[in-house]
Amino acid sequence: MKTMISIFLVALMSLVAKGSTNSALDVSQAWKLTSTPSVHAGDVVPSVTLKEALGLAEQYVAKENIDVSNRFLESIRLIPTKEGQAWVVTWCLKTPSDGGQVFITVKMDKSLSMIGGL
Length: 118
Fold this sequence. Notes:
alpha+beta
């Protein structure tokens, strides 16, 4: 919620900075910029939620003895695949370095694999 409010305020301030004088219009324009849904017509809502994907990836990392203690969770992205969609959960090294990422792919059938990294 804090993030949404912050984004709304940034959008509102950018409209005000452009010199618009109608504050009611500014608020509605800023809200439109931040309230656009991320799922569009024709998109398929993933059958595995982001939360489930993270949990499955964490279980996989533990089961496969993949050490992520010196890494931080960097991102969880939904990507298109030949089969539909998959989540990619990424851990990056805590100290700046080339490489060292751990990428875990979570497919919608809940199968998991590690791609690249380490």
